[in-house]
Design a protein that fits this description.
- The chain has helices at about 10-40, 50-75, 80-100.
- About 15% of the residues are buried.
- It contains three helices and no strands.
- It starts with 9 loop residues before the first helix and ends with a helix.
- It has about 100 residues and is mainly alpha-helical.
- α1 (about 10-40) packs parallel to α3 (about 80-100).
């Protein structure tokens, strides 16, 4: 049976939640380091590319927070781990996408 069709229990949600937390904790500092290095190398005032990146950073934070709180609020109350997974998905997706986009 494909993994998308399997029913997930509280234990698998708990494991998934901790895997996501670990991946976020591993990827976020790399994203921060790359962005910081690019901004510092660009000098002051920031050029158009760096201004776009700064706007993107701020927008991503607001968007991820909004999506995470909405997902947590609308999650089926199967357990706290399931709600945690729902809340972490937008943040996890954003951090992983940034890591790929920034070339790490």
């Amino acid at each position: 049976m494909p993994s998308s069709k399997r029913s997930r229990g509280p234990a698998s949600d708990l494991v998934r939640q901790w895997v996501m937390v670990g991946e976020i904790a591993w990827a976020a500092p790399q994203v921060i380091a790359v962005r910081t290095a690019r901004l510092v190398a660009g000098g002051w005032p920031p050029d158009a590319r760096n201004r776009r990146e700064l706007r993107r950073m701020v927008g991503e934070k607001a968007s991820a927070f909004t999506h995470a709180t909405t997902a947590a609020a609308l999650a089926t109350p199967v357990g706290l781990a399931g709600i945690g997974v729902a809340a972490l998905k937008p943040v996890h997706r954003t951090v992983r996408a940034n890591l790929r986009r920034l070339g790490r």
